[in-house]
């Protein structure tokens, strides 16, 4: 009841534009990727006017005061391989920045980001008071210049880790007459039970507040840094590997959620583990495995299946197969 009241209050405080105005802009995905496959939404716009957080679906996928939508990549390796940032709507380039290094905020060697929290980015103006801003882009990747006109889905640059960013992503801000808006509910009229958000997206993105980023096999429990870097998963394993380990990397799990990890091999199920999440975390990983016996593992294909559960509701599932030779 308290959360519902807060959201109603938020709708009033945001001074919502009329529905007819909200429909004069139509947005496409700002990354060249497939949501739920090789990119995901880590954080949504904060709709709670107080010190707490609530996204447009009354979930907790974000943090207090977050004013944009964070479209994230699964790893640093994906960022380095290069993922294009696309113009979500046709417009004109107002400003760019392209000279900040891709170093995670707070890491050794990270630059001073005072008044440059956006990092490398592009600001587009679309007419009728609309603007979109794309932050945390890769150093040296910006392809456009101030004054240049762009079409929807034109390449602006690539996803990076510049500015106040701790994982590779693009923070997309949407503004109307200088007012920050949520592209999933630009009219700011949404309540928790509203079945039809007033979204500006051309495609009807299904809400995915929590999910799985990646999965993989290893011969020991990997370091968290290796998982975030995208270097933890081994393409194959020898029969005498020290251990057979399967891990799952999740985003925004809630307290009480279960991350189930299962390994099956040529002779059936090897191990099954249900890890209960003790508190909400932005990102985490869990692993399960068995030490290798003297005779080694039977050769063949082994499948790891990770499933994120909330009660009896299956939020996400990912599988991967590795060969033991």
Walk me through this protein's architecture:
- With 325 residues, the chain is mostly beta strands.
- The chain folds into two domains: 27-181, Glucose Permease (Domain IIA); 211-324, Sandwich (Immunoglobulin-like), CATH 2.60.40.
- The protein contains four helices and 18 strands.
- The strands form four sheets. Strands 1, 2, 4, 5, 6, 7, 9 and 10 form an eight-stranded antiparallel sheet that branches. It has a five-stranded mixed sheet with strand order 12-18-17-14-15, with no helix packed on it. A three-stranded antiparallel sheet has the order 11-13-16, with no helix packed on it.
Q: How much strand?
A: 35-45%
Helix content: under 10%
Query: How many extended strands?
Result: 18
Oligomer: single chain
Dominant shape: globular
Largest sheet: 8 strands, antiparallel
Q: What are the low-pLDDT stretches, counting only 5+ consecutive residues below 50?
A: 1-22
How many separate structural domains?
Answer: 2
CATH homologous superfamily label of the largest domain: Glucose Permease (Domain IIA)
Per DSSP, the total helix count is 4
Structural class: mainly beta
Radius of gyration: 22 Å
What fold name stands as the CATH topology of the largest domain?
Glucose Permease (Domain IIA)
Supply the CATH architecture of the largest domain.
Distorted Sandwich
CATH class label of the largest domain: Mainly Beta
Can you lay out the helices and strands and say which pair or pack?
Elements: H1 2-13, H2 19-22, E1 40-43, E2 69-72, H3 76-81, E3 84-86, E4 91-97, E5 120-127, E6 130-137, E7 149-150, E8 155-158, E9 169-176, E10 179-181, E11 211-218, H4 224-229, E12 236-237, E13 243-251, E14 258-265, E15 268-276, E16 283-291, E17 300-310, E18 313-324
């Amino acid at each position: 009841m308290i959360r519902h009241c807060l959201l109603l209050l938020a709708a009033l405080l945001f001074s919502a534009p009329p529905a007819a105005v909200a429909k004069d802009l139509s947005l496409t995905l700002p990354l060249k990727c497939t949501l739920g496959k090789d990119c995901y939404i880590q954080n949504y716009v904060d709709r709670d006017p107080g010190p707490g957080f609530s996204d447009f679906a009354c979930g907790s996928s974000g943090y207090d005061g977050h004013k944009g939508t964070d479209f994230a990549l699964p790893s640093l390796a994906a960022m380095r391989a290069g993922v294009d940032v696309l113009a979500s709507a046709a417009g004109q380039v107002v400003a760019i920045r392209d000279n900040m290094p891709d170093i995670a905020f707070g890491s050794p060697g990270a630059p001073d980001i005072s008044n440059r929290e956006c990092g490398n980015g592009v600001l587009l103006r679309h007419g009728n008071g609309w603007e979109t801003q794309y932050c945390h882009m890769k150093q040296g990747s910006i392809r456009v210049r101030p004054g240049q006109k762009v079409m929807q889905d034109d390449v602006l640059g690539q996803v990076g880790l510049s500015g106040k960013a701790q994982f590779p992503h693009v923070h997309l801000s949407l503004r109307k007459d200088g007012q920050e808006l949520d592209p999933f509910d630009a009219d700011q009229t949404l309540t928790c039970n509203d079945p039809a958000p007033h979204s500006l997206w051309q495609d009807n993105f299904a809400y995915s507040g929590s999910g799985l980023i990646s999965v993989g096999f290893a011969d020991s429990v990997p370091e968290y840094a290796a998982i975030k870097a995208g270097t933890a998963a081994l393409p194959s394993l020898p029969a005498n590997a020290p251990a057979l380990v399967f891990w799952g990397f999740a985003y925004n799990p809630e307290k009480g959620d279960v991350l189930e990890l299962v390994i099956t091999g040529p002779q059936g199920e090897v191990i099954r583990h249900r890890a209960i999440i003790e508190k909400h975390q932005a990102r985490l990983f869990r692993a399960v495995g068995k030490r290798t016996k003297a005779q080694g593992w039977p050769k063949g294909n082994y499948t790891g299946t990770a499933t994120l559960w909330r009660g009896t509701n299956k939020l996400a599932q990912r599988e991967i197969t590795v060969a033991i030779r």
